[in-house]
Amino acid sequence: MSSGRSNTLVCYVILALYVLATNWAKPRSLLNSKHMSRVLSLALLCLGGVAVWVTETGVDMSRYWRAAQVAANRSLPEYVHLFRYEPGFLVFQWLAFKLVPSFDGFRLIVALGIWGLTLWALGLIVRKNQIAYVFFAYLNFFYFWTFSTNVIRQGLASGCVLLAMGFFLSGRPWKSLVSSISAMSFHLSSVVGLGIYVVDKLNFGTVVAFWGVCAVLFISGLNGLVSRLFAAVPLPYLAEYSSSSVILRYGGKINRLDFFLFSVIWLLWGLFSRKYVYTDEKYDFVLKCYMAFNSLFLTFGFIGFSDRMAGYSWFLIPLLVAYPVLNTTSKYRKPFVLLGFVLVIATSIWFGVLGTRYLVLGLFY
């Protein structure tokens, strides 16, 4: 292992242990405080920033960078009219390039934008002294990196949806609505975020039943009937991504059972946590949103790149893991905090975040 990777590993291990220790310490102590959480969050941002610099460039990111370079000699109104992307993303893209007209700088600004939205949202959902633990879980989650370094339009949209949830939970519905609309200005598929205002009115059992119906349609393949229902509706994205050419480019696989099973595992974790670890109105809301967003994936699993649809629910997984273990009043609180921590690290290693793709590259290979 090179000295650079060794140093990164040391930094990662120290930060990980501090994150665990702060949430093991007595509440309102110096170690378990909002000030320590802010320091650790800043350190995690720095570690993540280093990882962005060495991360392999994805296909989508390369395309967005080529588009951003056009901004060099264009005014903002001219630039917005050149591309078919959503206007919010085009404005962000233009500003990012004008601020730092280099590829590495552009990638870093995009990632920091998504992470900033995530941290802002977490500050509205969890206690201030818990933010570092939850953000650590996000930085170890593979799809968070997919959204941060490649599928960036949906990454920014997901950050806005999470922020909308945060504002809604903190009793600021108008700011929540603005965040939801902002999400759609980055990617139209984030219209799913409007579902948060519906699921809040539904009881928990109803949302579980709705997810179950969507799961049956997915497994049976009957969800393909949705395309016929919308056949008369002009939905260009649906027509494009359900075309045979796009599906072949995606590998010819639709209704991916591996994606379904992955989604089910975290739903089971949420249901287990709700019953045996901790729940309150916030966690019930987050879990209902997870099921509602995941139902979108189950409904449109017949299209190519369906993981992009699943991503809206998967974006909530770190929160689903961390929230109950941090807030439990059980006498087994410390073991639960450790369980969540181990689950985060294990998932990180399994999907290559820690070791081969993003954090501490080359650690295991």
Account of the protein in words:
The mean pLDDT is 87. The protein contains 20 helices and no strands. It has helices spanning 3-24, 34-54, 59-69, 76-80, 87-99, 103-125, 131-139, 142-149, 152-169, 173-184, 196-199, 204-220, 225-229, 236-241, 244-249, 257-277, 281-299, 307-314, 317-327, 333-350. By secondary structure, the chain is mainly alpha-helical. The longest helix is centred in the N-terminal third of the chain and has 23 residues, at 103-125. α1 runs antiparallel to α2 and α17 runs antiparallel to α19. The N and C termini lie close together (9 Å). The radius of gyration is 20 Å and the shape is globular.
Q: In short, what is this structure?
A:
The chain has 365 residues and is mostly helical.
User: What distance separates the N and C termini?
Assistant: 9 Å
Total of DSSP H or I helical runs spanning 4+ residues: 20
Uncertain spans: none
Order of helices and strands: HHHHHHHHHHHHHHHHHHHH
Residue share in β-strands = under 5%
How many strands?
A: 0
SSE-based structural type: mainly alpha
What characteristic shape results from the CA principal axes?
Answer: globular
User: What Rg, in angstroms, do the CA atoms define?
Assistant: 20 Å
Biggest sheet features: none
Instruction: Give the % helix.
Output: over 70%
Mean pLDDT: 87
